[in-house]
Design a protein that fits this description.
The protein has 420 residues and is mainly beta. The chain has a 26-stranded mixed sheet that branches. A twelve-stranded parallel sheet has the order 5-7-10-13-16-19-22-25-28-31-34-37, with no helix packed on it. The longest helix has 16 residues, at 48-63.
Length: 420
């Protein structure tokens, strides 16, 4: 299991997840990563000995902790003190001396909080910044930072994962900027059968995924961000529990791969909400896959610029699908909005312009039993030589089909129903 957790944290960065996974386009990726180039060059300039030192610090930390444990330095800059499952972090960051602050619980809860003025920066010494681990009969892990503290790392900014009690929970809350030069910004994972995962952040800048969340329990998976997310992916959320809901709510996203991706395999409801702008250079802006057991799924999003697709949704469950776009949605080499449903109703409401290139501007395939509905108030533009449809609707498995577009439609339009 330990090996599995490490692989999940380091390798689940979004590649190969779905149509719209990142490929190499260095000329376009450099535009998005330009702001991080100086930090990455600093990381690459570190000697092999410095990198080994960072890795050994993490290994030693976990090896020396028993039922409740903390491994780091004393009460210096960017460090934490406490015991019996309760710790407080204080002191400003010192990149010359800060090291990974590691905590392990083998029984009961583990709670880490921060004082005003706290900061940590391990980019000079290597490794993660904050790391929480629960195993055995651990019941909950929580890292709560409520004072706008900057957390910077060569590895993961904040990592919290639990293989403990069945009803365990993981909660990560940050209000300052979290930065990772070489890994995920915030990583949360929980493996109990009744477990739940909650992550909330402000700004996160990462080499890999800004926020990665994995829940295998029957509780809810909730990820929220009020700031800007940037990295290979903005959000990569995996819910493989039995009954819990998945809720993703973020503001701005800049990604080289998929902006926001949700893989929902629970019978609970799933939703993605964005209030800002989502921009990707080698993936889909917003993407969701909902498994055969999934219930109702919804998306309500703002402006989106995607490379492969603007909005992509594939729902294999029995519930309804609802997609609302409140900003301009465009795709450079795919569909503006593409949705596939097999449950009941499938409804799309586009409240601004939608465009696709080489594919549909708005494409719908509903094999379910309900109503299929597409409404658009702005221009709908499909270009390209392969499949330049402005609107394409295939609803042969459903009942009523309703299509209403107020703006200009460029490209072909086609509606297929069970009665056509």
């Amino acid at each position: 299991m330990e090996r599995l957790l490490i692989l999940n944290r380091e390798l689940c960065s979004g590649a190969g997840l779905l149509e719209g996974s990142p490929t190499t386009r260095s000329d376009r990726i450099s535009d998005v990563r330009g702001s991080m180039s100086a930090a990455i060059e600093k990381k690459n300039a570190r000697t092999p000995a410095q990198r080994v030192k960072g890795r050994l610090a993490i290994t030693t930390a976990f090896a020396t902790v028993a039922m409740f444990g903390y491994s780091g330095r004393g009460a210096y800059a960017g460090s934490c003190v406490g015991g019996a499952g309760s710790y407080v972090c204080s002191g400003p960051a010192d990149p010359a001396t800060d090291t990974t602050q590691s905590f392990v619980s083998g029984s009961g809860p583990l709670a880490v909080t921060t004082d005003p003025g706290f900061g940590i920066d391990t980019r000079g010494t290597g490794g993660d910044a904050i790391s929480l681990q629960g195993n055995g009969s651990a019941t909950s892990l929580s890292f709560i930072e409520s004072h706008g503290s900057a957390i910077s790392a060569e590895g993961v900014g904040v990592s919290a994962y639990s293989t403990g009690a069945a009803a365990s929970s993981v909660n990560v809350h940050t209000t300052g900027t979290v930065t990772s030069e070489g890994a995920n910004g915030v990583y949360g994972a929980v493996f109990g059968s009744d477990a739940k995962l909650t992550i909330s952040t402000a700004d996160v800048v990462a080499k890999q995924t800004a926020i990665y969340g994995l829940n295998t329990g029957s509780g809810d998976l909730t990820i929220t961000s009020t700031g800007s997310l940037s990295g290979l992916m903005g959000v990569n959320a995996q819910n493989h529990g039995a009954t819990g809901a998945s809720t993703i709510a973020v503001a701005d996203v800049i990604a080289t791969g998929n902006g926001v991706y949700l893989n929902h395999n629970s019978s609970g409801a799933a939703s993605i909400t964005t209030t800002g702008t989502v921009m990707t250079t080698d993936g889909s802006g917003i993407a969701m896959r909902a498994g055969a057991n999934s219930g109702d799924v919804t998306m309500e999003v703002g402006a989106i610029t995607g490379d492969r697709n603007g909005v992509y949704l594939r729902h294999n469950g029995s519930g309804a699908v609802g997609i609302t776009t409140n900003g301009v949605v465009s795709a450079d080499s795919g569909a503006g909005i593409y949705a596939v449903g097999s449950g009941t109703d499938l409804k799309i409401s586009a409240n601004a312009d939608v465009s696709g290139n080489g594919h549909y501007a708005i494409g719908v395939r509903n094999s379910g039993t309900g109503v299929t509905e597409v409404t658009a108030t702005g221009a709908v533009t499909g270009t390209g030589s392969f499949s330049d449809y402005g609107v394409y609707v295939d609803a042969r498995g459903g009942t009523d089909v309703k299509v209403a577009v107020d703006g200009l439609v460029t490209g072909h339009s086609r509606v297929i129903s069970q009665n056509s």
